[in-house]
Fold each of these.
Amino acid sequence: MSESHPTETVEPEDRARALQSLLVDEGLASTDAIDEIVSKFEEDIGPMNGARAVAKAWTDPEYKQWLLEDASAALDELGYTGIEGVDMEVFENMSDVHNVIVCTLCSCFPWPTLGLPPTWYKAPPYRAKMVKHPRRTLQEEFGVDLDDDIEIRVWDTSAEVRYMVLPQRPEGTDEMSEQELAELVTRDSMIGVERLAGKHANELQ
Ligand code: FE
């Protein structure tokens, strides 16, 4: 992987546009091909791949352990790898630990598992506030009220690794199939700005 953080404060959109025109100018890619890739990530992938991996981890302890120990390989096994998601790390939410992912420098996001990043994820207020005041940001911006005894771990993307949160399995889901469980997993819960712990399946459907 040669991709890295920009060292200048160029907006990601501008960088993308510059890169796109360069690729097109050099005959390396057509705008149609680029549009197709973007639409693939926007419409086909979305956060469903991540949700399926989470549901699998909830129902298969061995897979869960693999996902936490070697996320890149465990996600690759499901075919959820590729651009912006080759090197992955997954952090498990627990009753006393809550994880959040952010990229303070730009907008690094695990595309193959969560799709394209939401607009607010790329916006400076989220990037600046979440690292400095996670508890307050979760409460004020996302309505997530965490007890003081829950430790918040903010994972700032700082290398070529992309992060994802493994949320806790909601209540009332014992009888559910893996596929039904996957439908309960939200994108926001895998970013860490929503907490599924303590929620009932009914609230999520
Ligand atoms: Fe980034």
Amino acid sequence: MYDIGIIGGGTAGLTAAIYGQRAGKRTLIIEGLNFGGQIVNSPKVENYPGIESISGSQYSMNLLNQALKLGSETASEKVKGIREEDGIKIIVTEEKEYPCKTIIIATGVSHRHLGIEKEEKLAGSGVSYCATCDGAFFKGRDVAVIGGGNTALQDAEFLSNYCNKVYVVHRRDEFRGESSLVDVLKEKENVEFVLSATVKDIVGEFMVEGLVLNNKKTGEDFQIPVSGVFVAIGQIPQNEIFDDVVRLDESGFILASEDCMTSRPGIFAAGDCRTKEVRQLTTAAADGAVAALAACKYLAAR
Ligand code: NAP
């Protein structure tokens, strides 16, 4: 029986394990893919307080080692769901069942992909899903942001401070994001809107060299030369397997506020998988700490 069962081995989950172990609890982290989460793919992390520069993979490795050294246990298994039996919470994986006194769900989100050829191949070689993480590496270059929501608009503004030129490529004429953000971009000399356009292909074999776009109104294809493509077309939580135990919002995020409490006592949600405004490494780490301490408090009250 684990005191705290943690689902997801990204920054939130690993931080929860560190805090749980340091509070003397027996913790288990279950991860279905790679320990470290989304940040593993970032070439450099330069926005984590106290760490000037580190690769995403090194950062993740350090975090995992820290949790392991403190005695946290791990399992590399795909979680199928959670059930409760006689007051015990049970994490059900494809292989086993893990009884736990409390559970922290820290499953993160996946960036929605364009689904075009070369996107996966050039990820990290010009294709990025995080302007905040990777924008500084495109200083003085021409880049494109794909999407018309608040993330794309904010990314474009952020990138306009580093890049020579920023194209905002959106599939419609109207933006989904806030008009005030659009107005800010309109004032920027180095930002150009490319509207009613979809991405058809990425030019470049080993690095991004440009984009082939399709004008949806005329049906014509045209190219823009860019060395970076920031895909900001929404994020997809993967919480469906938990919707019978905790409440989700209409987009599938677990309803929980800054205290990381879900609708189910003893089950907490930490990091990007929960409803929140800012999804960053620092906020995921903060959530991991908050959720673990909340779990400890729940255990003490039993
Ligand atoms: P979003 O609001 O869902 O916007 C996604 C954008 O990508 C939409 O413009 C959509 O086009 C486009 N898109 C979706 N699938 C596409 C595809 N396959 N190909 C091309 N374009 C595609 O996502 P988000 O911008 O990541 O924002 C997520 C949530 O966080 C939103 O509620 C947003 O308001 C919030 N947020 C808030 C702030 C803030 O400052 N308050 C900052 C960032 C995000 P269509 O418009 O045509 O559907």
Amino acid sequence: MNIVILAAGQGKRMCSKLPKVLQPVGNMPMLSRVIQTAKTLGTDHNILVVVGHGGQVVVEACKDDDLKFVEQKEQKGTGHAVMQTLPHLRENEPTLVLYGDVPLIQSQTLKKLLEKAGDGFGLLSLKTENPTGYGRVIRQNGKVVGIVEQKDASEEQKLIKEVNTGFMVLPTPYLNSWLSQIDCNNSQGEYYLTDLVGLAVRDGMEIQTVIAEDEMEVAGANNKVQLSELERALQERLALELMNKGVRLADPKRIDIRGNLHCENDVFIDVGCVFEGNVSLGEGVSVGPYCVLKNVSIASGTKIDAYSHFDDATIGQNVKIGPFARIRPGTILSNNVHVGNFVEIKKSSIGTGSKINHLSYIGDCDMGSSVNIGAGTITCNYDGVNKYRTTIEDDCFIGSDSQFVAPVTVKKGATVGAGSTITKTVPENTLALSRGRQIVIEGWKRPTKK
Ligand code: UD1
Ligand code: CA
């Protein structure tokens, strides 16, 4: 089939440098969502994107081998937009029209429309209590005979509550002839794609209609208010999908998924969490309130406490993290690790059962298993120019407020006394101390005010 995606509109009301169809919903440009949905309809379709305003930017943002971009230099209406694609259409296959600014259309709805249309003319309509702005679907004896745009409609026609969503399947062999017959003698001076409906009926064709079940699926965004409405609708849809797969959400209205979130059974997600990129949560994982998780995989049984932040990390089973933990790129936490409040970890692997419970910075570190890191421990990994690694082997005990001036290694079973600055290798099973000795001055008097 041919799939034509109209994406030439400027979207002045977005008040943005970014072309309208690149405005994001769920952190993905609206047009990319439409392309993604088009691709779910099958392989080997002839997908044509009509671009105009900001055309090059749109092409750059969305280009891929399965797409052709067609330029519409001036925006003279939806009919004019489809005209530009005529030389690129496969004559013997139907043509489906989609919209770059209507991103929530679902493939199951389009499949229904395609099935209903067969080789003929299919129209997706909507019944709505507030038809203002839409083209009205005109029926006679139950059959569609035409579409009248809001601006051309009589007062009587304006009362019609069945409207045109714009989504259509067209019989391609007729397109050339029909498009050459439409003109722009209407209130907007545009070539209307919707005029094809009347022409098809005149040619004795019956218009097959499917009525959209979900108004948000066919809603477009012309401004930031509508964009936010689409965002909410998408989030609600994603939340429902999760719950239907067994995820327990504290409040489906307070979750934001801006990528792909995969969950096993019995996951619990508290309010205010944001998921970005690819996130997977294993069985029984629990995510506390207001966490941000980006490109992270978390294995079963792990508990994440409030306000924790993850970016590009791999977390094992039965790990405890947070509240207020920051897990940065390249972090690998093995099973049963504990990471407590105000701990930042970057590009480090932490072995099974190790604990970093309070106020620490662990960067560029290879840590063995069953290590205990005292509060306020810091790996000094950066000399201002280069980064170096710290190695802390199995079963070490690191006293509070210690620093490791990398590159440095603490061998198995070693102990580091609190407040030490470690600059040289600590051998196995030894105690390393590097702090000044405590002195006591008897009879010391505090200064008095002069
Ligand atoms: C259109 C329909 C209307 C329908 C409504 C649904 C026509 C004439 N009217 O009206 O019946 O109820 O959509 O939202 O089709 N575009 C181009 N090139 C152009 C003009 C438009 O690419 O020259 C794109 C726009 O970027 C937009 C889409 O086509 O994505 C619809 O165009 P718009 O002018 O917004 O049509 P409506 O007036 O909303
Ligand atoms: Ca519109």
